[in-house]
Amino acid sequence: MSEPALEGALVDIDGTVFRGSEPIAGAPEGIETLREAGVRPVFLSNNATKRPSTYAEVLDEAGVPTEPASVLNAAGIAAAYLGRHHPDDGVYLIGESALRAELEAADVTLVADPARADVVLASTDRSFDYGTLEDVLAADEAGGVVVYATNPDRTVPTETGERPDCGPVIGAIEGLLGREIDRVLGKPSEVTIEVALERLGLEAEECVMIGDRLDTDVRMGERAGMRTVLVRSGVTDDDALAASELEPDHVIDSLGDVGRHLL
After folding, report:
1. What GO molecular functions are on record for this protein (predicted)?
2. pLDDT tens digit string along 1-17?
3. pTM, whole model, 2 decimals?
């Protein structure tokens, strides 16, 4: 039985289209190749330190014309999820200004007093310190708090190398509380899958997931039943690929090669 026609692509941004603020060679051409073949992209990022509208502007400047509605990042996904599932709950935020702005735009109630929090939302936060952990403990001791994270990534690729992402924050919180957090909202969670497919108006089998990470991009695509493409332009090298139980359908050097292998 043949696969359904490919109509949509979930395209990771960091490490696939950009490294830091610099577009990866061939990436704009790869996106254009997908569009010319009738494959509509939606762009995904687990980086919650920018707003979706900022990503759309950066993509435009890099030669990839993009509407803000075609960008889903961890900040926007978290705001949508909390607005839908916790509309009246107080949220104690561990995160930076772009995430705060996205939550406020979605009318999420943010609280400064951790004892008043119903939800702790953890994300990348370059001011994270011991005092933050004291606040998390106070929220937990008040009872009934749920702990979410925007994304599980240990690091994020930049022009000058990798820097810490949300994973270390999650590790510190789990070590403090002695339990796992309740849910990750970004890749590879079902929350991201549902939002992306809803945005495209497609079924999973009509889509491909393209990204540079095995543990988030490829894992999410496999979990959803999508075709998967791993690009070597980000954090995954051949040794990591050989050691992984995950097997992407295609492995390419960069997004610029997508036409030769997928279409």
Report:
1. phosphatase activity
2. 567 899 999 999 989 99
3. 0.88
